[in-house]
Design a protein that fits this description.
Blueprint (H helix, E strand, L loop, with lengths): L2 E5 L2 E3 L5 E8 L7 E7 L6 E7 L5 E3 L7 E6 L4 E6 L8 E6 L2 E4 L2 E4 L7 E5 L2
């Protein structure tokens, strides 16, 4: 059974960086793809980043392109989301989901997701 546990969120000021972690158990990080999603209050869920676990290719939403980086550490069974130059609009609960894939211009997931970690960007 796949289990995902996110961590690393917090309250930060605009412009700073955070790194989120998604600890994965029940599956090896070698196949399919894993995604990071976020949901802000009153808004729909948004897929922000996807990593192919087989070939390392990545996808990012336009809203985070150039600021966020998704990566993995197989030894630690962990997927990361490095978030730089955080903006007010990045405030949301972030969670990972597996498996995930890109459908057109959106990221979707069919498998389980974690409980999420909250990111608040505020001055």
């Amino acid at each position: 059974q796949v289990q995902l546990v996110e961590s690393g969120g917090g309250l930060v000021q605009p412009g700073v960086s955070l790194r989120l972690s998604c600890a994965v158990s029940g599956v090896t990080l070698d196949y399919n793809a894993i995604g990071w999603f976020r949901q802000a209050p009153g808004k729909e869920r948004e897929g922000v980043a996807c990593l192919s676990l087989s070939d390392g290719s990545t996808w990012y939403a336009d809203s985070v392109q150039g600021r966020f980086t998704i990566s993995k550490d197989n030894d630690k069974a962990t997927v990361y989301l490095q978030m730089n130059s955080l903006q007010f609009d990045d405030t949301a609960i972030y969670y990972c989901a597996y498996p995930a894939w890109v459908a057109g211009t959106h990221l979707v997931a069919s498998g389980p997701r974690g409980q999420g970690t909250q990111v608040i960007v505020s001055s």
